[in-house]
Amino acid sequence: MPETATAATVELKPGDTAPDFTAETTDGSRIALHDFKGKSSVVLYFYPEDMTPGCTIEAQRFRDDHRKYEDANTVVLGVSMDPREMHEEFTEKEHLNFPLLVDTNGEICRSYGVPVEDHWAKRWTFLIGKDGKILKAYHKVDARTHSGELLHDIAATPGR
Prior knowledge:
alpha+beta
């Protein structure tokens, strides 16, 4: 039977505290959301699968806009349910300059209410402020334009 989760389990909205997590990254190190508290905003984006067309386009946009995110004191973190080996291959092939987080058991997806079907996370994003609160949740994401949309919203959000 396919693995399915629904967003109804958890429904995070702006102003809610973003659930903390610790996860393995592309290079095998571990990263926690609380590492960024008080330091930088975080774009936490969930995507279905490494090396698929839409996910590749979305990752390339984040890669190409990396300097703009740095200038906005914002970190980009990608999350899928793929194993680290696939993240490594995807990162190398696409020259990604931000970490991908390993969520093979779906724990991060569940804590953010991200729907999962057949081991694929739905394409959702959360913009998290330096204070650890959710600034914006994106449940309809166009992989081609999402990075630009986020950069626009970051620029329009004072005191993130």
